[in-house]
């Protein structure tokens, strides 16, 4: 293989398969940039979208992975923030920039999306997003946080007070943003002073953002000094009308741009010449510097016994020449009697840094020709001497394939070990796609930084966690096809020195999906007439496990996700098992494999993978594990064990964990009740778009059980949830219309909402529809019984109980003589407050033989041989029951039937996510 590769411009086909843990690379940066201009109901702003574009450009040049959002409505804001949280995952620096309408209420600052109205007291908590929440999530996933808020325009209040938590806060006369004290490791930058209004600007950018963009990329300027310079400039540009402000609790230094400070020269060179040589080329190796700095050379000591020439120009102490021409300098001895001489020179960067070198010219009687100058240290070619005229280096093209979210991946050693044309000397990172981060030896590197050629095997590449499948970015189908996870390869054209890649036509049904292409280019640091770049093309894709088994709103996912009953189980099992084995360090794959196993009904293995993912730090795995402890599904019921699992996820901004924790705190499930903290936690989940949290807030304000009753506030949350097609929101809104609570009573509309929710899988919408039909006399008993049975099958205790009661009154509707007993037992098994208590009492009134037969039938369905179905429960039957349950069978036959039916129900893979608590 190496012979073929040496014959042409090199094209290596490799796969990014070895991912480093996130904390294996230092200097990782992620940024969220939002600019809202086109407000629909509030005053539009001229510049925020432009501001956001400009800041994105600056931050990408400063090595940030940028999540950009412009003109976001509330749902778009939620989705963009979620996308940003997915890019954090234990990085070093997290930055948030916001330009647009924002308000301060109750000491908190809120971003205002473009569809906000702020028309009533209830709108802020539904329509806005608390910046303090975002900062908290950033703190949990990074060591240093920066918030830059160019959002201090006039507050667009359409009301004089708004609810924030349990308080209603007056906002009359409030302007600008509130100054928030940062926690350790945080810097908050305001475009103007607290409670003051910033200017919009007249040139397409705000005064602050325009100035920030000009200053931020100055290398090696610490951020606090940088902000001081920006403040002075903004004051100057606005004639003192705007003074930027910042609040810092940073415990370490931060630089937007840290220029690698390397200047590499040949400090000593000896040139041996034959006697009576007329002239000799000194062949001083061109110096190298990082950052593409301009270099000049001047000679500080001229030869005592000769002169220096560059072409036909004689050099003096005042001469300055371009560094890339230093190897052309000639030495002409003044006489044939010269024995030795010395020249000294200094290389200076445009930033003022300098280094000095010496060239000694020695007459050697053994030297026969000027052309045979003994080579000294040649920094172009590395530390080892090279032949005077080495074979010209060839361009190298490396094609890689990488699934997003699998970490930094290594350049295989084949790049430099398997070919005689391997790169040598120093390389410069010439180009880095903004959607790609590059690290060498565990540290992020920037464009312009230098890399030793022998260190190329330490180079790591991490494509962005965002996948932009734009048509223009798609990878063409060519003869150079990167390795995929199955190890298949394409062809390499080795017949030419050019880097042309010819198209390879494929049948339409065989053509691979187009993938975004990310490019990194390394160039020889020494300029040559025919530079030989190393071009690394990374084809980026989403692992099939992510597309098949990711979960909605998972802050550590890389795909939108599937609800439990929407998972394609066979495909997900295959894909996720393979992903978990290939990337054992990626907790996300363990969790998604657990979801697929659970969907299959393989609870034991699912629990193993779930615990492994939780232990590895996957917050949604911890959440689901906590839910299983609450339900007693696949594990012994222990709600207290769920609380620390929910706490860890809530801190990371996982809305599911926040909701579950908040619900437990309000109800006291597994923990001491704390209503204020619980409601605040649920509100945070609702702020992130979690509709279950909106539903809970709605029901709490509707019932007044734990907080002050407020039907209008309840209606706001419930309507928002229903508008997002949440089935619980639909049901709750239907209840409001059924009862005329906060709205005009409308039973027809209520039935429509119940039916829509029922069709979408809501567990007790059918029961509500049936109860309403019974009251309104709009359906017959057979139809009503069908709705009740459906709710029972979905896990609704009241649905099972009412179904049994209806069948008692209408015996001809029974499927068989034991159905009533089964429905009562199933209702009792759900352990749901009053419904299960009434079901247990009713089950006690069913004759023992009927219950005994149902127990025997349940065991038979579970694969047990219990002999004749006679209803008499002897030792053989009870032993079989203990085998099925995995524990000693209850002595009470009604309890035994409930336990067997509950296990049977769990094995039908019900939608536990739809059952509330």
From TrEMBL:
> Is-annotated flag, keyword Lipid metabolism?
no
| Entry keyword Protein biosynthesis | no
Q: Which InterPro entries match?
A: Caspase-like_dom_sf, Caspase-related_regulators, Pept_C14_caspase, Pept_C14_p20, Sel1-like, TPR-like_helical_dom_sf
| Pfam families per the UniProt record, alphabetical | Peptidase_C14 (PF00656), Sel1 (PF08238), TPR_19 (PF14559)
Region Disordered, as annotated, extends over 484-510
Q: Which UniProt keywords apply?
A: Signal
Q: Where is the signal peptide?
A: 1-21
Q: Where is the Caspase family p20 domain?
A: 27-156
Spell out the Polar residues composition-biased ranges: 484-498
Write down the SUPFAM superfamilies for this protein, in alphabetical order.
Caspase-like, HCP-like
Q: Which Gene3D superfamilies match?
A: 3.40.50.1460, Tetratricopeptide repeat domain
Name-wise, this protein is TPR repeat protein
Which species does this protein come from?
A: Aminobacter ciceronei
* Organism lineage string: Bacteria, Pseudomonadati, Pseudomonadota, Alphaproteobacteria, Hyphomicrobiales
């Amino acid at each position: 293989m190496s012979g073929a590769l040496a014959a042409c411009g090199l094209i290596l086909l490799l796969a990014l398969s070895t991912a480093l843990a996130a904390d294996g690379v230092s200097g990782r940066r992620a940024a969220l940039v939002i600019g809202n201009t086109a407000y629909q109901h509030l005053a539009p702003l001229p510049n925020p979208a432009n501001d956001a574009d400009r800041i994105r450009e600056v931050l990408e040049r400063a090595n940030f992975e940028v999540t950009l959002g412009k003109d976001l409505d509330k749902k778009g804001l939620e989705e963009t923030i979620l996308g940003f949280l997915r890019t954090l995952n234990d990085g070093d620096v997290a930055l948030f920039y916001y330009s647009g309408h924002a308000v301060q209420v109750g000491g908190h600052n809120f971003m205002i999306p473009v569809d906000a109205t702020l028309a009533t007291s209830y709108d802020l908590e539904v329509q806005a997003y608390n910046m303090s929440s975002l900062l908290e999530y950033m703190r949990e996933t990074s060591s240093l946080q920066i918030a830059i808020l160019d959002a201090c325009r006039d507050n667009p209040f359409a009301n004089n007070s708004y609810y924030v938590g349990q308080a209603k806060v007056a906002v009359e006369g409030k302007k600008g943003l509130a100054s928030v004290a940062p926690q350790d490791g945080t810097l908050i930058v305001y475009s103007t002073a607290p409670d003051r209004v910033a200017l919009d600007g007249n040139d397409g950018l705000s005064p602050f953002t325009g100035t920030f963009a000009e200053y931020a990329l100055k290398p090696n300027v610490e951020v606090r000094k940088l902000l001081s310079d920006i403040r002075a400039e903004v004051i100057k540009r606005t004639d003192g009308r705007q003074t930027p402000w910042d609040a810092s609790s940073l415990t370490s230094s931060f630089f937007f741009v840290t220029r690698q400070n390397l200047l590499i020269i040949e400090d000593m060179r000896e040139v041996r010449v034959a006697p009576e040589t007329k002239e000799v080329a000194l062949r001083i190796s061109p110096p190298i510097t990082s950052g593409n700095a301009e270099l000049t050379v001047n000679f500080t000591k001229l030869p005592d016994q000769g002169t220096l020439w560059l072409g036909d120009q004689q050099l003096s102490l005042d001469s300055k020449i371009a560094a890339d021409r230093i190897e052309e300098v000639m030495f002409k001895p003044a006489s044939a009697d010269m024995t030795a001489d010395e020249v000294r020179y200094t290389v200076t960067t445009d930033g003022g840094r300098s280094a000095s070198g010496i060239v000694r010219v020695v007459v050697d009687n053994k030297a026969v020709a000027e052309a045979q100058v003994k080579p000294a240290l040649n920094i172009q070619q590395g530390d080892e001497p090279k032949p005077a005229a080495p074979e010209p280096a060839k361009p190298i093209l490396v094609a890689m394939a990488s699934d997003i979210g699998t970490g930094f991946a290594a350049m295989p050693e084949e790049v430099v070990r398997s070919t005689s044309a391997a790169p040598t000397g120093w390389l410069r990172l010439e180009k880095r796609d903004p959607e790609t981060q590059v690290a060498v030896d565990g540290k992020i590197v920037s464009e312009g930084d230098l890399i030793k050629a022998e260190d190329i095997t330490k180079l790591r590449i991490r494509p962005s966690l965002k996948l932009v499948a734009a048509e223009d970015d798609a990878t063409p189908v060519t003869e150079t096809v990167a390795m995929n996870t199955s190890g298949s390869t394409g062809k390499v054209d080795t017949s030419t020195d050019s880097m042309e890649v010819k198209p390879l036509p494929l049948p339409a049904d065989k053509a691979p999906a187009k993938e975004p292409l990310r490019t990194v280019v390394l160039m020889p640091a020494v300029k040559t007439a025919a530079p030989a770049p190393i071009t690394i093309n990374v084809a980026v894709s989403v692992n099939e496990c992510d597309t098949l088994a990711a979960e909605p709103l998972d802050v550590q996912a890389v795909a939108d996700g599937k609800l439990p009953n929407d998972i394609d189980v066979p495909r997900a099992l295959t894909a996720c098992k393979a992903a978990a084995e290939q990337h054992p360090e990626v907790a996300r794959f363990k969790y998604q494999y657990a979801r697929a196993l659970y969907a299959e009904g393989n609870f034991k293995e699912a629990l193993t993978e779930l615990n492994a993912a939780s232990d590895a730090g996957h917050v949604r795995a911890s959440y689901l594990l906590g839910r299983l402890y609450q339900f007693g599904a696949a594990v012994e019921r222990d709600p207290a064990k769920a609380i620390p699992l929910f706490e860890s996820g809530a801190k990371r901004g996982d809305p599911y964990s926040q909701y579950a924790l908040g619900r437990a705190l309000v109800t006291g499930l597994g923990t001491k009740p704390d209503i204020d903290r619980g409601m605040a936690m649920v509100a945070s989940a609702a702020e992130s778009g979690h509709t279950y949290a909106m539903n809970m807030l709605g029901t709490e304000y509707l019932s007044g059980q734990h907080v002050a009753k407020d039907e209008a506030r309840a209606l706001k949350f419930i309507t928002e949830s229903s508008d997002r097609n949440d089935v619980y929101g639909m049901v709750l809104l239907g209840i409001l219309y059924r009862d005329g609570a906060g709205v005009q009573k409308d039973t027809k509309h209520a039935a429509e909402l119940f039916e829509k929710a029922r069709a979408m899988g809501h567990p007790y919408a059918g029961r509500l529809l049936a109860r309403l039909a019974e009251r309104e006399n709009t359906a017959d008993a057979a139809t009503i019984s069908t709705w009740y049975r459906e709710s029972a099958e979905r896990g609704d205790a009241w649905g099972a109980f009412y179904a049994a009661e209806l069948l008692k009154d209408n015996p001809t509707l029974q499927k068989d003589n034991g159905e009533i007993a089964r429905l009562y037992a199933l209702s009792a098994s759900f352990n749901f407050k009053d419904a299960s208590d009434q079901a247990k009492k009713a089950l006690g009134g069913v004759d023992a033989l009927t219950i005994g037969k149902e127990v025997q039938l349940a065991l038979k369905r579970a694969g047990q041989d219990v002999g004749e179905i006679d209803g008499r429960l002897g030792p053989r039957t009870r032993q079989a029951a203990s085998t099925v349950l995995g524990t000693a069978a209850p002595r009470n036959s009604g309890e035994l039937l409930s336990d067997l039916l509950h296990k049977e129900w769990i094995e039908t893979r019900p939608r536990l996510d739809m059952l509330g608590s």
